[in-house]
Amino acid sequence: MGTVTTTSLVSFSTCFLPKSLYSKTHFQFQSQLLRRPNSFLQFRNISLNRNKSSDCVRIKASSSSSSMAAENKNKNKNVQVFDSEEDLAVSLAKYTADLSAKFGKEKGSFTVVLSGGSLIDSLRKLVEPPYVDSIEWAKWHVFWVDERVVPKDHDDSNYKLAYDGFLSKVPITTGNVYAINDALSAEGAAEDYETCLKHLTKSNILATSAATGFPKFDLMLLGMGPDGHIASLFPGHPLLKENEKWVTFIKDSPKPPPERITFTFPVINSSAYIAMVVCGAGKSSAVQTALGNNQNSDLLPVQMASAEEEFTWFLDKDATSKL
Questions:
Q1: Is residue 112 within 8 Å of 218, Cβ to Cβ?
Q2: Sign of torsion, CA 28 287 293 296?
Q3: Which helix (H) or strand (E) element contains residue 57?
Q4: pLDDT, tens digit, 9 for 90 and up, residues 12-59
Q5: pLDDT of 40
Q6: DSSP letters of 253-281?
Q7: Which of 131, 143, 169, 270 is 20 to 30 A from 241, alpha carbon to alpha carbon?
């Protein structure tokens, strides 16, 4: 199957709740690292295996808190450190394709959540052979973990970023791409998107977590900001404590543009799988806080994220330079 090219934005599906109780649990992965002469990273008190095929260091860490482990089904987080961003992109493509095949076989569909920033570029291997020809794209349903409240053709739009770099190059069914209604206010767009998700759960396109009652996406592909924010959930912001809404809005984002919609932590943490993709030295301080031997009681937003099945960090070597 060749690359699909177009010259203009396609108008994908535009999304136009009983409240569930949710007890939010935080998983904090703390470990101590030693720099090795061969430039690999060794994590104490965790298992480490060298993945020769993908040329990365693979780590699995367990929470030291027994009470937290009892509350949180995601007892382990995996950390993969790659020698380069190119190696990371290769591994991320295989990881995503494998999950696409798994869920496509098990339930006939694959629900995927995208974020903005550099994440889309890290997905570039999916639009190349062998994946562009082998993935069952018709089974994909695509969502956004957050979106800027701007027109879809605006340079700040996460939709435009994903369309230009990924969606326009693969044959995902047009009606299976769920963009926000950019004609609405931030509050209206958030309510509309939540209504859309609820319709999809009722029609069994989107699963519901038996543990939380919130939607359970198969895979969230997330990035992290230099300040440790994920989605549009920023350090110290009151939205970090939202535990009833599925989708909410922000009008005072510390990073422009100020008006956005975002999934809340109950939805993020109900995901089956999460891939946290972080590259570059500019994010190394937040990585150090999140994965290092940090004793600060104030968790970064990225530290508040978990997954019901597996949470995997995809890091390049620059992002781990302060560990």
A1: yes
A2: negative
A3: strand 56-62
A4: 455 543 333 223 322 223 333 323 333 334 333 333 344 444 456 655
A5: 33
A6: -SSSSS-EEEE-HHHHTT-SEEEEEE-SG
A7: 143
